[in-house]
Specification:
47% strand, 10 strands, globular, Rieske Iron-sulfur Protein, binds FE2/S2 (inorganic) cluster, mainly beta
Amino acid sequence: MIGFESVGRVADFPQGYVRGFKLQDEEVAVVQVDGRFYAFSNACTHEDVDLADSMLNGVELACVFHGSVFNVETGKALAGPAYKPLALYSVRVEGEDVFVGEE
Ligand code: FES
């Protein structure tokens, strides 16, 4: 379990981009979609690769390696070869600052 840590300012998260962070010992990815923030494990559940170069279309994230698609809001794998969901983290926005952690 990780405590809440700052990952930057709201303006640091342009829509469509996936940013990766190491928070304590966990690799976490953070995105912003239509003003809402989502944080999830930065590792594709197919072969454990970094998702920060992957393509985000709305809340659907497509892994660049073999095309698995995940919903970043629910973590659910929508298309394989990955079938396990992404672990999710909580995001708090306080003023212009963005924090990620586990409740
Ligand atoms: S590593 Fe992501 S789909 Fe294979």
